[in-house]
Amino acid sequence: MQERHKNRELYFKEQAITTKNHVIPFIEHSISIDSNTSVLEIGCGEGGNLMPFTEIGCRTVGVDLDKGKINNANRFFSTKENRPEFIITDIYEWKTDEKFDIVMLRDVLEHIHNQELFLNFVKKFLKPNGKLFLGFPPWQNPYGGHQQIFNKFTSRLPFIHLLPNFLYVGLLKLAKEEEKEIKGALEVKETRITIERFLKIVKKENYKIEHADYYFINPNYEIKFGLKPRKQLNFITKTPWIRNFLITTCYVLLSEQKHR
7-138+193-256, which class in CATH? Predict the structure, then answer.
């Protein structure tokens, strides 16, 4: 596993920087963010994405199933005055009537089973004019299998997640990857999401796309690898199927369409 994924505090800081420099400006195309804004992050991990919102003064809530990550989150925010509320639960089992201005799903959708059901369910957390932010990698992109979680050798191999399962697992075992990481990789493969399927779900679940950016170089690569973010060429983003191989992440802001 690469060092940044072992070092959870480093990973936390990387998330915070990318959200501050790229995610918040993206969201602000459609909604102003200030101390009156409420933010829910589903699959928050250690809460790095929430840090820039807390610095603005937002009310922030993070929900995650992983107790260890939430424990880290509480530790990382222990000296902060405006701390998020962290909740350890399955989002489907969370009992709350609170509604939010912004619901965030950054690098989460590709891990979700039955994404159609999920995107319908999260509407319940949105205020009437609330926005749903999603950042996700199309399945077929060079590192769409989340190879970055692997050891140095396999983490650098593009497209290996597109191999048949028996070859993919065989390669990972040969590289002495941990069973936990192999299981996670197969989950991403099972729940694979393409741009086409995502857009189909968006339409079916009556969402409106407020704003969308498709990146050739993921904004997160700026802090990780020193690479300047670069949006994909427009004609590629409009070319179905091929675009999935050439886009490293999609930033999409949704709102619920009003019934006429």
Answer: alpha beta
